[in-house]
Structure formats: structure tokens, C-alpha cells
Design brief:
The protein is of the alpha+beta class. It has helices at about 5-50, 155, 185-210; strands spanning about 55-65, 70-75, 80-85, 95-100, 105-115, 120-130, 135-140, 170, 180. It is flat. The chain starts with a helix and ends in a 14-residue tail after the last helix.
Length: about 220
């Protein structure tokens, strides 16, 4: 192969990679806003499932359990909900925006992380104004199939409803019904959710509402 052939092949590869890069950038510019809006919709849906009676859910701030970014929210019931129709500047379509008039706080929603057996478990839970657990859900995990992954089953998740901070402890004997019953063979995963994730998330929320940590402070660190 001559030097001229090498130069020709090199130039062809440069042109090919340049065109591919331009194509990828064009696709990203089109799909990125769509993906962003989809993520926002899914996030709002997950929050609403935690507190379905709420008319308005607003972010209060950020915190970092296990150095992972998480958020916490306030849920409110509106005395009146005013609906405005506005135009989306990106898509050109119209959408409705709700305005909450005379809101009353009915609870809080916290995202948290617990260190499990083989993963950090991403958890979402809600509490009422007395800090009693209403609901919880597992957003993501990579725990052992057939053992730790049972944290996603209804029987395990429903145990948290009605629990306060003092009762977010795991009982592996099966005799203390006032606490969280451990998953057989997966005590670490059970404790990661109850004691590391939710209990520490609730402690952080209570501190935040007392002003011991600043709302919205990106440097806030949780106890997880």
C-alpha cells in the first residue's frame, strides 16, 4: 500500500467519523428535550403515587445519603386550584399549569438511598405531618434475585405504612410485629431499606424542617 493510499483511507475515515458525529449531535438535539420532559413526567407520577391526595408537590431541597444526590418535597392540599393554559415554547403545544391557592401542608416525600448487600437501594417514601409513614416504594436496586429483591414485594413494602421513626427497625425473629419483619435470608437488604434508607431519610427531613440543615442546600449531607 502506497503513502497516497494511506492518506486517502485516513481522509475517508476522518470524513466518516465527522459525519457520524454531526448526525449523532443532530439526533441528540431533537431527542434530548423529549427525554427530559418524559423524565419529569415519570418523576411527578412517582411523587403523586406517594401522596395521591395532594394537589401540589414542591421540591424543598437536596441531600446526599451515601454521597448520592436525592431530593425531598412538601405535599400540599389546595384551598382552591386555578388552572392556566400556556404555550410550550419548545413544542408549540398548549399545556395546563395549576396554581395552588391557600395551600395546607399535608405531608412530605423523601428520596433516600440505603446500602444493601450488592447495591445502593433507591427509595421513595411519604409521611404525614406527624412523620408517620404513609407509603414507600423502591425506585431502583440490584439486590440478589430470589432473596434481597423481595424488597419490592407488596408484603414487605406494606409493613412500613403507619410506622414512626422508633419502629423503623428490622426484626429477624418474626416475633416483634411492631417492627419491620426481615426478608428470610436477606437481613442486610431489609435493614438497608428500613434502618439505613428510610429511618435516616426521616431523621434528615425532621432536621431540615427544624432548620438544622438549609432547605435547598446542595451541600447538605444526610446521616445515611
Amino acid at each position: 500500500m502506497s503513502f497516497k493510499d494511506i492518506i486517502k483511507i485516513t481522509l475517508n475515515l476522518v470524513i466518516l467519523y465527522t459525519l457520524a458525529g454531526i448526525l449523532m449531535a443532530a439526533v441528540y438535539s431533537k431527542t434530548s428535550p423529549i427525554i427530559y420532559r418524559k423524565n419529569i413526567e415519570e418523576k411527578q407520577k412517582a411523587l403523586q403515587e406517594m401522596m395521591p391526595e395532594a394537589d401540589d408537590i414542591k421540591k424543598l431541597g437536596d441531600w446526599y445519603p451515601h454521597e448520592k444526590h436525592a431530593e425531598y418535597f412538601v405535599a400540599r392540599k389546595c384551598g382552591e386550584v386555578k388552572v392556566k393554559t400556556v404555550k410550550d415554547e419548545v413544542t408549540g403545544t398548549t399545556k395546563e399549569i395549576k396554581e395552588c391557592v391557600n395551600p395546607e401542608v399535608i405531608g412530605y416525600i423523601v428520596q433516600t438511598f440505603g446500602k444493601g448487600y450488592s447495591s445502593y437501594i433507591n427509595i421513595l417514601f411519604s409521611v404525614d405531618t406527624n412523620f408517620i409513614i404513609k407509603k414507600m416504594n423502591i425506585l431502583h436496586h440490584a439486590e440478589t434475585p430470589g432473596l434481597g429483591d423481595e424488597i419490592t414485594l407488596d408484603w414487605f413494602k406494606k409493613q412500613f405504612t403507619g410506622k414512626d421513626l422508633e419502629h423503623l427497625k428490622v426484626d429477624k425473629t418474626g416475633t416483634k410485629k411492631e417492627y419491620i419483619q426481615a426478608i428470610t435470608g436477606a437481613t442486610i437488604s431489609s435493614r438497608a431499606v428500613a434502618e439505613d434508607g428510610i429511618a435516616n431519610g426521616l431523621k434528615f427531613l425532621m432536621k431540615a424542617l427544624k432548620g438544622e440543615v438549609e432547605h435547598g442546600a446542595s451541600t447538605a449531607r444526610g446521616e445515611g
